[in-house]
Amino acid sequence: MSNAATLAIPGVEFGGGGLVGFLIGYGLKKIAKLLLIVFSVLVALVSIPLAYLSYKGIITINYSLLMQYVTQAETYAISTATWLYTTVGGMTQSFPTLGGLGMGFTLNCVSVEVHGGPSPLFPP
Known about the structure:
By secondary structure, the chain is an all-alpha fold. It contains 5 helices and no strands. The chain has one domain. Helix content is 81%, strand content 0%. It is elongated, with a radius of gyration of 22 Å.
């Protein structure tokens, strides 16, 4: 069989799309994890000096206003995550690439719940 004939088989196209989507989703998951770590370090680098200055009495922090902003940011993040989950979840029913993307993106989450540790296939 030639390569053109192999690619024309429906199962190969379906599996290939799912595999590509899985790899893209897994890569996006790793990138998101890295961005979250960088963001956390930046927040720490800003908040630790502010806490020290507040402790020394040099500055005053309005904690009620700060909590309002944190609550608004949390609400926005939850609504965005819910929208993304519903949108991708609806698309994955009909497109193998997006189904694989969803599986690759959630691989570490599912493996931690099932096995109680990191994924045996893809360590963190």
